[in-house]
């Protein structure tokens, strides 16, 4: 008995050890990735969170001082420039990304009907996406130049001098729209690509069934294609929302936030506070407020996407 | 058919995409460096004992002001030095340099910066004091002859708390530049006389600026100096883009005799004189090209040199470019004068803003400080006459020796013309009015620039804009530490007085 027990015990040890090791192995395998992730995301996040409660003005050389939640109070209640930048960004997101979704979907539908040369056309269409935004900004600065830019020249030539173009980047009434147009030009092909991928994965039977049932092209588009595409479009819009929320390069190149502050985006203002004024605590607080806004909106999008995907599947 | 329609739609989109994706002309020192100016040998200097193949990293604002390192690229290897240039956008110099300083990366040996930031950089220990290097022997190698540097630049641009931390390479001030051919045209003179009852002449006051600007503003098809215009023509133009537009407001305000703050750092920026000055700036846009709110240095310069405007207030390097046929369509048609002023007590008081400027300094974190110092001294003194006299840089006179050699300014048709230009520059410098030279300058000036720009854009009235600036300046002072800022402001005031910029 004792021997059996001993045998059991003797046999159990290696088994227990094996179980322990088999439990530890995945942990050990994942550990390096966790350490790297903590180093590159968690540590900066926590460090930035700590900064939000400090007054740390690098221009003075004074050591940082703990000021509690004063930075957040300033962001939320005492800084009209922050809210102006948020409003400008909101406009770029709502209208600009909306336009990208509409035009991108239209182009994808047309591309999907192409039989030959689709790959070539798609590759060419993607050129703007491959250009660095700062270069795109520079190009549009040339194109939109009031006196020497080709846009106003074309407007003048095509209307026989009856229409005079705007000072696109200098007129407060249109400058934000010019920034938006640049962003739309650059990123609409991305939406096209995403929607085209979605279109090509749609089950053909549903469209054929609609055709058999006598649905017109427009009806099939409205009742079958678009509802099925909606989850994909929502993801595309979400990606573009997050990207446009951080819009910086184009603004830096085109307008520097002007005239006045009509084109100052939240990313540009954050850059100024962080890298021109070196107010580290305040910049951190601004960043956290933005993080909260992005997280909330992203959650809304994801929730909606889940719902429409469920609806589409059902 | 459907396929063809789809292809048509896609091709249209493609054409738009590819049309927009066209390239642009190269800029930067490489473009400007092609024509190094002729060596004048007016300044004597010597090479240092050869360094052992050290690399010196030089940082500065991209474009024509880094051209001297290209002009004199053969000099540096003879001193055992390899130069590596790091170009930063004009608006990004402070943030790039400050970021590297704070990070302690040691990325730069020689830093080029705008002197308004000397307080920030020197007080925080980012710069190497240069006094000991300047005293080293032999004199021809190490002495930058600071006694020859004009007092505003020597005292304000180069020193902090009594020590020298930087050497001036660009002595900036504003001057008025105008089309003398238009002012001298008899038909224009007669028309002006008939309209305003007085003689046509370059504006003496900012009120005149508006009047003359309105007079010369003409539509396409109208006549200007006997010629029918094939495009709209404008009386004046301004730097109205975000960044330095505040300087064109200060040009209009400074003659009132007021300063940015009083002794207790209470902002003086929203006085009635300041509001009137900003109103004048806003009103002047009526006589300017419609895209003037997008005009920075380049656009303002080109508006004049392409023959689109009658007059501008600009930095003093622009006349050199205006005399160069490769850059100007108005060669021989420009003249220069003092920035308009304000009529006070029966006389016109002129003040010219001194925005930007450039100095070179040695980073405290440099591993090759003696070599870095020699490079800085070589561009700031040894080759400085050549660098400021050519139209291929934007660098302006800053030393006595620069005024003594008009023959070096070979873009002007005659030495007499160059001498006349130098006389006008001397007047502009005598009218000089400084920027805010205390740590936090970037924040104070950004707040001022933002609200000036909002007034120009019609987002705020001049009064609202300047009241907002005063409020923001008070908040900035409180955040940065009021007591310390007051001490620094008193120090800056003292430097202004020593430099002869304020009484």
Distinctive features:
heterodimer, A: 314 residues, mainly alpha, two-stranded antiparallel sheet, 13 helices, 76% helix, B: 503 residues, alpha/beta, 5-stranded mixed β-sheet, 4-stranded mixed β-sheet, globular
Number-wise, the strands of chain A total 2
Work out the number of β strands of chain B.
17
Find the structural class of chain A using helix and strand composition.
mainly alpha
- SSE topology string of chain A: HEEHHHHHHHHHHHH
Shape of chain B: globular
Report helical residue fraction of chain A: over 70%
Give me the secondary-structure category of chain B. Answer: alpha/beta
Q: Strand order, main sheet of chain B: write it out.
A: 2-1-3-16-6
Indicate the multimeric state: heterodimer
Structure description:
The complex is a heterodimer of chains A (314) and B (503). Chain A has 314 residues and is mainly α. Chain A is 76% helix and 1% strand. Chain A has helices spanning 2-51, 70-78, 80-113, 118-125, 127-130, 133-143, 150-158, 175-200, 204-212, 217-245, 249-254, 266-276, 280-313, and strands at 54-55, 65-66. The model of chain A has no long low-confidence stretch (mean pLDDT 90). In chain B, 44% of the residues lie in helices and 14% in strands. The model of chain B is unreliable at 15-33 (pLDDT under 50). Chain B has helices at residues 2-20, 29-32, 67-71, 75-78, 93-103, 118-123, 131-135, 139-142, 151-157, 180-183, 186-196, 206-216, 245-253, 272-284, 297-305, 318-322, 369-382, 384-389, 400-403, 415-430, 441-456, 462-480, 482-498, and strands at 54-61, 81-88, 110-113, 159-160, 163-164, 166-170, 174-179, 223-224, 227-228, 234-237, 309-315, 334-337, 342-344, 347-349, 352-353, 358-362, 432-433. The interface between A and B is large, with 53 and 57 residues.
